[in-house]
Design a protein that fits this description.
Layout: H1 4-16, H2 19-26, H3 30-44, E1 49-51, E2 56-58, H4 60-87, E3 92-98, H5 107-117, E4 121-127, H6 130-138, E5 144-149, E6 158-173, E7 193-197, H7 203-215, E8 221-226, H8 229-237, E9 243-246, E10 257-261, E11 270-278, H9 284-300, H10 309-319
Parallel strand pairs: 3-4, 3-5, 7-8
Antiparallel strand pairs: 1-2, 5-11, 6-9, 6-10, 6-11
Helix pairs in contact: 1-2, 1-4, 5-9, 9-10
Length: about 325
């Protein structure tokens, strides 16, 4: 059976071409070393050395086997190094879900920041709704989620951390009579036709829009529903409806859409984006992501008076729950 110790003994003999010097090099007696090489040749099925009273040399098969022995030990060391890197959260894989609006907000900055500090961790990014992310997290198809909070139903399996705030604004067709205003009150939209996020796919956003409009004294006339932000903007651009959307979507420039802040002070216009993960996931790569996210959050101040994810991560690792 081949093993690292036997290969190192073979390499010593192959490089020294002298059993006495090779035996000293690997710190065993010459006779056991000679016996080990004979057993190795029997195992390989061919002679690796030419021996006589004056010299030792490699056979053609021995030269080939020496190259392979070097590679064997190289890959063995590489395997050890990679295992250590994985333990330290320097390499690995992460599958990350994100809501569409985060893709036009902090998500690209966060991913770029993490890639710079951990280039050997491979990332798979998938846009999906908050509900789908929660389902994928529970089934272990996702490692992380960037989603809307608060969650409709809390569960001990999913840990969340508030990462950024956002606020709803109105998206209007460019030719809409109100498109020239600097701010708009919700009451001014009472007789408008709305495109809303799907009640089934994005229930929190759907309920938030209705609650915000209710504080202004009306129930919105919902003519269209969809689950992706691009579709919402498309309906607005087509002149079919208006929409209440997260303010970071102003980065999604469309020549036929005007974005205008809302003047209302209702808390129903405020939004949260959080990072979510399984509370029992002890992946070092996940821990590295949470630490990097925490350091970036503290640098750019996406949420005031919130504990950084780095400190949160440390606390969970101390408890053995991250």
């Amino acid at each position: 059976m081949l093993n690292s110790r036997l290969l190192k003994q073979f390499i010593a003999v192959a490089e020294e071409l002298h059993f006495g010097r090779a035996a000293e090099r690997v710190n065993i007696a010459q006779s056991p070393l000679s016996q080990a090489m004979q057993k190795l040749e029997t195992y390989v099925g061919t002679a690796l050395f030419l021996r006589n009273k004056r010299a030792v040399s490699l056979t053609p098969a021995g030269k080939v086997f020496l190259d392979e022995a070097y590679q064997w030990l190289k890959y063995e060391q590489l395997a050890i190094e990679r295992a250590q890197s994985a333990k330290n959260g320097e390499i690995g894989h992460l599958s990350i879900g994100f809501i569409g609006s985060a893709g036009y907000g902090f998500m690209p900055t966060l991913i770029n920041h993490f890639r710079q500090s951990h280039p050997r961790i491979r990332l798979r990014l998938v846009e999906m709704t908050t509900l789908d992310q929660l389902e994928q997290l529970k089934n272990r198809y996702l490692d992380l989620g960037l989603l809307r909070t608060p969650l409709a139903q809390k569960t001990s399996l999913i840990q969340t951390h508030l990462y950024a705030h956002d606020k709803l604004m109105v998206a209007l067709p460019k030719k809409h009579p109100l498109s020239g205003q600097k701010t708009i009150g919700l009451k001014q939209l009472a007789h408008e036709s709305f495109v809303a996020f799907s009640k089934e796919k994005v229930p929190a956003a759907h309920a938030q829009m209705i609650a915000a409009c209710s504080t202004a004294g009306f129930y919105p006339d919902i003519a269209q529903e969809c689950s992706q932000v691009a579709s919402v903007i498309c309906f607005v651009a087509a002149g079919l409806s208006i929409a209440l959307i997260p303010s970071n979507l102003t980065a999604l420039i469309h020549p036929k859409v005007q974005y205008i802040p809302l003047s209302d002070k209702t808390p129903f216009l405020n939004q949260e984006i959080s990072i979510a993960w399984r509370s029992n996931d002890d992946s070092p790569a996940l821990a590295s992501f949470l630490k990097a996210a925490g350091s970036l959050q503290e640098q750019i101040g996406t949420v005031r008076k919130e504990p950084g994810l780095a400190r949160l991560n440390q606390a969970h690792r101390a408890e053995g729950s991250v």
